[in-house]
Amino acid sequence: MERFYSRVIPMRKELAPEWALLGLLTQKPMHGYELHRYFTDPSALGQVWYLGLSQMYKLLKELEGQGYLEVTLERQENYPARKVYHITPSGRAAFLQWMETPVGSTRLIRVEFLAKLFLAQLLGAEMIERLIDTQLEACQTHLTRLQERMEDRGWRLEDGDWRMEIRDWRLEDEGGRRDATEGFEYLIFCFRWGQIQAIIDWLRTCLRLCRNSGRVFLEEWRIADGE
């Protein structure tokens, strides 16, 4: 895969729909309304990311200013010419770098990773599998570090199977003494541990579906007029 990462200009926002716009344009040049329908259709990115039309055009202008997009005019009979947006090599490189970078926070999985998963389908089964593998590795590392912190505090986790089911977390010391603050902290750690483990289980399901069918969803989205 050709890489231009040294020339990539980082985006400002933690959750930036610009990446989704770039991803859609990797398939073909599109005009604004064609792009926007992906953010309003309930079966596409509309379930993950809402993007208003005026906000989208503002972002497209910013992407053009960054050199990630180029614009041409398409003449229409009886209508004003409309802008058509084309991704540039640096824009494609920036998008691929974003795709290959795992989501760093569990709270962003439900938006950023789901958007990546949708866009990965447009790039083929290999990209889907690489995306899931990369995120799975990052989550497993996060879970291991969290578990080590819990064990450092004397909270014991007994391994059952690969899911590492919780059997016995001990709050009391030998004298049966723990203060309320530590008990609350214990509950926070348990919540985080369970949350990450649930994400790992879900990612494994995604990976299994990907390997069995070549894509995650039953219907493949094709970027084409009229679909």
Question: What's the structural domain tally?
Answer: 2
Distance between the termini: 30 Å
SS field, number of helical segments: 7
SS content category: mainly alpha
Rg over CA atoms, rounded to whole Å, is: 22 Å
Q: Spans of 5+ residues with little confidence (pLDDT < 50)?
A: 1-12, 160-169, 218-227
Q: What is the average per-residue confidence, as pLDDT, rounded to a whole number?
A: 78
Name some characteristics of this structure:
3 strands, 2 domains, Arc Repressor Mutant, subunit A, three-stranded antiparallel sheet, 7 helices, 227 residues, disordered N terminus, 50% helix, mainly alpha
How are the SSEs placed, and which strands pair?
Layout: H1 18-25, E1 30-31, H2 32-36, H3 53-65, E2 69-76, E3 79-87, H4 89-100, H5 109-121, H6 125-152, H7 180-213
Antiparallel strand pairs: 1-3, 2-3
Helix pairs in contact: 1-4, 5-6, 6-7
